[in-house]
Design goal:
Mean pLDDT: 81
Oligomer: single chain
CATH topology of the largest domain: Growth Hormone, Chain: A
CATH class of the largest domain: Mainly Alpha
Number of helices: 14
Low-confidence stretches: 423-429, 431-440
CATH architecture of the largest domain: Up-down Bundle
Number of domains: 2
Strand content: under 5%
Structural class: mainly alpha
Number of strands: 0
Shape: globular
Amino acid sequence: MAVVRDLRVLLRFPGFRRLLAVRLLSQSADGVFQVALAAYVVFSPEQQTSPAAIASAMAVLLLPYSLLGPFAGVLLDRWRRRQVLVYGNLLRAALAAGAAVLVLSSVPLWLFYLAALSVTAVNRFVLAGLSAALPRVVDGERLVMANSLSPTAGTLAATAGGGLAFLVRIPAPGGAGSDAMVVTVGAGIYLLGALAALRMDRELLGPDPSALQPRLGAAITDTARSLVAGLRHLSERRRAAQSLASMALLRFCYGALTVMVLMLCRYAWGDDTLGGMALLGLAVGTMGVGFFAAAALTPWAVQRTGRFGWIAVCAAGAAVLVPALVLPFSPVPLLSAAFVVGLATQGAKIATDTIVQSSVDDVYRGRVFSLYDMLFNTAFVGAAGVAALMLPPDGRSAVLVLTVAVLYAAVAAAMFHVKRGGGHHDGRDDTVTSARPTTS
């Protein structure tokens, strides 16, 4: 396979091997911590779980990415990135250990949220540091390959970390003790990530100390101005803006369905906490299979339908299959729906990434992707908030399912209209001859 061959080439670079080890450990710990957060907020017998509580937890996990992401680079260009990886993982290990103590102490939920918010805020710097360091450990010829494989490996590691959290929780005693145990495992893996970063030289990952950096205040102001300039440029690139709008709606649908599945696993299907967690684990795993099916299928599909055509196909398939599979509110059909949602969301995202990359001028591309990241996560959190208002306690809401189906259909119709309009906008064609998929 081409992916295996590319990975073998990259692993010949010792700096890349060590940086990849840090990424795998860091993101697997993220997966453990996210499952621990879901277990404590949604499945803990001590908590009276509600859609609003789930929406709050999602905001804690995702809003730091949106709000801090564009400004993380300002500090990363001033600090040694290797030290960011060392101290960032050490700090997250300490914060996660503190969160475990809070779980055992049965403190108010908002205090646990504060600890979780701190962990995920530091996470933004670690992930940005991992990406910024890649050009320092591979040559220019293989940088695109490294940028493609490293995030994919990180996504796999986060998924494996979530699976590890489920495995740890199964034999653990019930109640707060099991939740604290999972959080402690996450803290231990964060610590291993810090130790792995110590294997690299302090100066290996940059930045170049001889490069002149502006004052911090000026740099932050300049970043804000750059984002405004990126938004202005995006408004002039109609096709990129159209694809981002469609992706925001698809992400909204994904977020609303996620909250519904959490409530169904908690109250409608699980006879006990362990049963509900097991069903949630199956749903997450099935959706992950859909993600990677999209990664394999999308290059072939885009060759035949075009980028906007593939987004339309993904949305149309979800519009038909999601209500058909979800409305019985039975576990087995809903697991099939999880695969469909994973494939449709990720397939559309890969196409959207390619549209943005090809439609936006290179000098604005980083800023537009920062805006993309903010929109992507804000849509998910907004969906959780809307779902909190619509869902009953057991999660069974035909109104929510039909609303999501209508949104999917609207995206399909809009993207089909754009597809029929041809590829003359912005001087770009809607077809692609070669593209390596990216993962979320």
